[in-house]
Predict the 3D structure of the following.
Amino acid sequence: DQQVKQNSPSLSVQEGRISILNCDYTNSMFDYFLWYKKYPAEGPTFLISISSIKDKNEDGRFTVFLNKSAKHLSLHIVPSQPGDSAVYFCAASAWGANSKLTFGKGITLSVRP
Amino acid sequence: DAGVIQSPRHEVTEMGQEVTLRCKPISGHNSLFWYRQTMMRGLELLIYFNNNVPIDDSGMPEDRFSAKMPNASFSTLKIQPSEPRDSAVYFCASSIRTSGGLETQYFGPGTRLLVL
């Protein structure tokens, strides 16, 4: 049973436009959410996070939005750049779950020049 | 700053052989995680340690897999005997809990294992 779902396996956008990557979760105990970016032959790298007390967190070109009632979060990248082409993983954890992260299966983003 | 270090980066072995993967977490981090990534199952948590003590090994697939953390700066994941279905990329990650209780895991580059 997948508790973190990234239903779209891939996304292609034009350079300069907005990329919107979506993630849904089923466990209402999750209270901390993270996005990781992964290039081929490298480990996932932390990108941005949000705790459940917020509904938005922004860091440069990256913004994460959290809708707790819908159990949905999204990552917005604007403007998108070719270097953003990678696999993006959504992850979640629950307070008291001893640091355990549950990952989605990832979305492959391709940014076309 | 050095990140999480894993060795070897690539390992090719024959079925039945013992495989040992190594990890050095980021200095000062007190939690360490082993993950396996496959096309079919994505990123799966195998086991994690807190302050060198195994906390949750429910993701370890079977008795052929074992992990140790003898000190704060070193951990191993061992597969004995290895099987072709163990072929995957194995990641190690480490983290430290902030005062707010939130943790961010930092990943190593991974070990790509191929069992023939």
About this structure: DSSP finds no helices and eleven strands in chain B.
